[in-house]
Amino acid sequence: MCLFLLPCRWLLKSEFVHLSVGVCDCVCESVCLINGFLSLVQQITGTLAIAVFTAALGSLQYGYSLGVINAPQKIIEKNYARSLGLLSERLEQSENGTDETGFSESRNHPEVVMYWSLSVAIFSIGGMVSSFLVGFVGDLRGRVKGMLMVNVLAVVAGLLMGLCRIWKPHIMVISGRAVMGFYCGLTSGLVPMYIGEIAPKAYRGALGTLHQLAIVIGILISQVIGLDFVLGNDAMWPLLLGLSGAPAILQSLLLPFCPESPRYLYILLGKEQEARKSLRRLKGAYDPTPDLEEMKREKDEADKEPRVSILSLIFSSVYRQQLFVALMMHLSQQLSGINAIFYYSTAIFAQAGVSQPVYATIGVGVINTVFTLVSNDFSWMSYVSMSAIFLFVSFFEIGPGPIPWFIVAELFSQGPRPAAIALAGCCNWTSNFIIAMTFPYIQVWLDCYVFILFAVLLFVFTLFIYLRVPETKGKTFKEIAAVFQKKPGTPKDNAELQQLKTSTDA
Question: Which residues form the signal peptide (predicted)?
Answer without folding.
Answer: 1-22
